[in-house]
Every structure is written in C-alpha cells, then in structure tokens.
From TrEMBL:
GO terms for cellular component: membrane. The lineage of its organism: Eukaryota, Viridiplantae, Streptophyta, Embryophyta, Tracheophyta. Residues 26-64 form the Leucine-rich repeat-containing N-terminal plant-type domain. Residues 1-21 form the signal peptide. Belongs to the polygalacturonase-inhibiting protein family. The gene is LOC121175278. It is found in: Cell envelope; Membrane. This is Leucine-rich repeat-containing N-terminal plant-type domain-containing protein. The keyword Membrane applies. Transmembrane segments: none annotated.
Length: 336
C-alpha cells in the first residue's frame, strides 16, 4: 500500500472515531439540545454542543449512568440559568426516559407551570424546583410518578392547597414546599403516608387550621411548619416512642399544654417560639443530652424550668416573653 493510501485511511479513521466512540445516546442528546433551545439558548449551557459528547462530563449539569445502562442521561442539575427572557420548564425534559434526578434552581426567569410531559420520567426519584418563579397548583399528574422519593419545591410561586394525593407516592422520603403561597389546611390524608416519609417541611406559606389527629402515627426525622397561620393542638407531632430529630413550629398560633407533651429522646432541635403554648416545660426535656437548639420564647408558659440535661445551658433569650417561667438560667422562682 502506498504512503498516500495509508495516510488517506488514517485520516478517515481519525475523522470518524469521535462519532464512533461517543457515549451519549443520540435520543438523549437530541432531547438536551431541544431543552437548550426551549430555554432560549442561554450562555450557561454553552457547553452543550452538537459536536461534543454529552456524557464526557463537560456538559454543564449533565451526568450519565454507567455502561450497564448504556450511558443514558440520568442526572440533570441546572443552576443559575441566565435565561434571556422568561421561559417555562421545557416540555422536552420528558424526553430523557432514564432521568432519576432533575433539579432547576436559582433562576428568576423560570416561569409558568410544571409541564405534563414530566410524567414520562418513569424512573425519576428526586425532583427539585427551587428559587424560581414557577407558579400554579402543584399538579395532580405528579402522582403518576410512583418512583418519586423526594419533592423539593423551595421558594417559588406555587399556590393552591397542599396536594391530598401526596401519600399515594409509596416511596416518598421527603416533601419540602417551603416559601410558596400555599394556603388551606393540612389534609387528613397525610396521616396515611408510608413509613418511608421522614422529612416534611411546609414553612413560610399561608397554611391555616389545625393539624389533623391522623398525623400522630407518623414518625418524622424532621418536621417544619413554621411561619404559617396554623392553630390548635400540635402535640400529635411529639411522642416519646418516636425518633424525631428536629421540630420547628415557630410563628404560628398553636395552643396546647406543653407540660403534657412526651418528647422524643433523639430530639436535637426544637423551635416553638411565637405561639400560645401554656403549662410548664415537660420534665422529659432533661433527658435530652444532645439538645442543641431550644426556643420557647413568646408563649404563655409558666413554672420552674426543670433542672438537668442542657436546659440550664440554653440562652436566656430562648425562654423570654413567657407568662411566668422561672429558675435557672432565669431568675429564681419567687413564689416557690
């Protein structure tokens, strides 16, 4: 073979090798490029090029599964998209069938509602929409994605009520809807969440009414209902047999006898300030050796602060503005 023929063959191999060795699935690549187009081709996604491999770790926010799943795109994490004008979530996001993680955050120009095409993501486990202007009610069609384990919708413009269908997601571990405009009451159906649910946070919304008694059987690691307009008895969230780590009920209108509450021995953080709690502090608080943060200020509590545990090491301000709490670290009880 002549030198020129060898050189010609070498150039052919060199030209076609990138295409032959590309890991990115063609359908996934097409979907991603369409997503980029539907976003108005933001410069944030300038690394998404039709001439490069979407599974080479150079496409911003894109990750692919390993070779056992033929390098399909399974992780899409889009942050700080500098969209040239307001755009909704691209419907083409539903054309990534192996996606198990989808996150779009810190994008003010993201508007509109969640597209129904998202139900095509039958392997999706985590859905995050945070710090955007996505609006509307949380759509019922999300109940079709039975693989969902985590829904995190922090600080958007979602409105309407809490979705009563949430407990129909059998694998749900976390639901966080903080910082939206969600109103109405907590549905009775929430008492039927599976044991998998460990984190429930609805802070900084417009929730009203009382906590359903059905929630008494739930064993959360972390519950945050702060900064709402909830009222009545929240003692159903407590229990000595539970494994709760953090409870935040601050800035509501809860009113119940705190002295009758039995607290979880695993409790690390307890915020109850700015409510209408009455009675004394429960003796069980003295057994919480790892209690790090505790605040019952601005309530109607009375009586001597139990001695033991970390209660005497808590800052005085955490006990302030109550009816008649006394004893270390507050001044001595005059009437005792």
């Amino acid at each position: 073979m002549s030198h020129s023929s060898t050189l010609f063959l070498f150039l052919i191999v060199l030209f076609f090798t990138p295409a032959l060795s590309e890991l990115c699935n063609p359908q996934d690549k097409e979907a991603l490029l369409q997503i980029k187009k539907e976003f108005g081709n933001p410069t944030t996604l300038s690394s998404w090029l039709p001439t490069s491999d979407c599974c080479n770790n150079n496409w911003v926010g894109v990750s692919c599964a390993n070779k056992t799943q033929s390098y399909r795109v399974n992780h899409l994490d889009l942050n700080d998209l500098n969209l040239p004008k307001p755009y909704p979530i691209p419907p083409s996001v539903g054309n990534l069938p192996y996606l198990n993680f989808l996150s779009i955050t810190n994008t003010n120009n993201l508007v509109g509602t969640i597209p129904p095409t998202i139900t095509k993501l039958t392997m999706l486990r985590e859905l995050q929409i945070r710090f955007t202007n996505v609006s509307g009610e949380i759509p019922h069609f999300l109940s079709q994605i039975k693989t969902l384990e985590s829904i995190i919708f922090h600080y958007n413009n979602f409105s309407g009520n809490l979705p009563p269908w949430l407990p129909s997601l059998p694998n749900l571990y976390r639901v966080s809807l903080d910082g939206n405009r969600i109103s109405g009451t907590i549905p009775d159906s929430f008492g039927s969440f599976s044991d998998s649910l460990k984190l429930m946070t609805f802070s900084d919304n417009r929730l009203t009414g009382e906590i359903p008694a059905t929630l008494a059987k739930l064993d959360f690691d972390f519950v945050d209902l702060s900064q709402n307009m909830l009222e009545g008895d929240a003692s159903v969230l407590f229990g000595s047999e539970k494994h709760t780590l953090q409870i935040n009920l601050a800035n509501n209108s809860f009113a119940f006898d705190f002295g009758k509450v039995r607290v979880s021995k695993t409790l690390l953080i307890l915020y109850l300030s700015h409510n209408r709690l009455y009675g004394a502090l429960p003796e069980g608080l003295t057994s919480l050796k790892n209690l790090g943060t505790f605040d019952v200020s601005y309530n109607e509590l009375c009586g001597k602060i139990p001695r033991g545990g970390r209660l005497q090491k808590i800052d005085v301000s955490s006990y302030s503005h109550n009816k008649c709490l006394c004893g270390s670290p507050l001044p001595k009880c005059k009437h005792l």
